[in-house]
Amino acid sequence: MSGHSSAGSTSGGGDKRERILEAAIRVFAGKGFFNSKVSEIAREAGVADGTIYLYFKSKDDLLISLFEDRMERINQALRERLPREPSAEAKLRRFIEMHLDLVEKHRALVEVLTVELRQSAKFMREYKNPKFGEFLRLLAAIIEDGQRAGELRAGVPPTLVARAIFGALDELSLARALGKSDPISATQVADLLLSGLRGRRHT
Amino acid sequence: MSGHSSAGSTSGGGDKRERILEAAIRVFAGKGFFNSKVSEIAREAGVADGTIYLYFKSKDDLLISLFEDRMERINQALRERLPREPSAEAKLRRFIEMHLDLVEKHRALVEVLTVELRQSAKFMREYKNPKFGEFLRLLAAIIEDGQRAGELRAGVPPTLVARAIFGALDELSLARALGKSDPISATQVADLLLSGLRGRRHT
């Protein structure tokens, strides 16, 4: 988590940086990125306005750092857990479970990641969003391995599959984060993606 | 297309209203909703700033009217075309084709709808987004009919399926609209959704 600013590495600074990030999640989730002010985040974090600028260059930098930091945590968790699973199908099921679990446990974070990440695709065009790219590649690698092993259907680009799966999960997560749906069953979603929509008599 | 403002119904006003909406699509797609100014949209449309306020109460109202108008067109096209298809599977294939076709032909619109619609989920919470709800219900109805006919797998809530399909298409459309992917094959996406990820030997 190198971040965009170096101040985060000063001893003892980690806690304060983390407090600011946590506060930013709450404020961004509540008001949206564009409507949020750095001073509100400072108040929420219990620090002086100027303190935020010791850790982050700007509100944009704060959002980008938040993405990098949290996406890296998610990627880290995936890198740790997925290799333990015995098959591509088991890996996919675990991936879906972990994703939907995040929504239940960290709803404000998911709201920021799903809503603002998309907005950010535009206003941060020059920022390549490397951690999200890594996240997609982790998912595409599962698909590619599964295709190579004959476990998953071949002939579809793994990147397309990864984007489709992410999109499905992301939309379901957004609906859940915004309180528009009940908790989502990971098993139902995994069955749907693995077995498809067709009824049995058509398979 | 009743819209939020009544001025759109004055005779001859339709053209100007439409010109403003077209200009808004280009400006919102180029700079994002939050960074766009009503005066820029007026310039792009070749009308005076004040003219916009004859048709729309505010920038928010313009975005909402844009959604309602274009989503209604999309829903209208779906209501016309889908009933001609003989089965739930054929309807779904047509739905996917029409969605991906829109991305190729109206990229800026898709960029606004995919990016700003999501952002709008937050800042327009009190606006229920009825046309998007209708769009999702159209899709859920195909699933429900297919399940009832035994053509599609039962036991999964049609709304969940509709959201998952929309999410997959939406993410693929966004990647395409932002120039991050090649044209997307509707057949590949439909096959994937209908037959699932599992390889043949597992079905």
User: DSSP strand (E) fraction of chain A?
Assistant: under 5%
CATH C-level label of chain A: Mainly Alpha
Number of DSSP-assigned strands of chain A: 0
Assign a percent range to the helix content of chain A.
55-70%
CATH superfamily of chain A: Tetracycline Repressor, domain 2
Written overview of the protein:
- The structure is a homodimer of 203-residue chains.
- The first copy, chain A, has 203 residues and is mainly α.
- The first copy, chain A, has a single domain (60-202), classed as Tetracycline Repressor, domain 2 (Orthogonal Bundle).
- Chain A is 69% helix and 0% strand.
- Chain A contains nine helices and no strands.
- The relative contact order of chain A is 0.11.
- The interface between A and B is large, with 56 and 56 residues.
Question: Gist?
Answer:
Chain A is mainly alpha-helical and 203 residues long. The first copy, chain A, is built from 9 helices and no strands.
Question: What attributes does this structure have?
Answer:
homodimer; 203 residues; mainly alpha; Tetracycline Repressor, domain 2; 0% strand; elongated; disordered N terminus
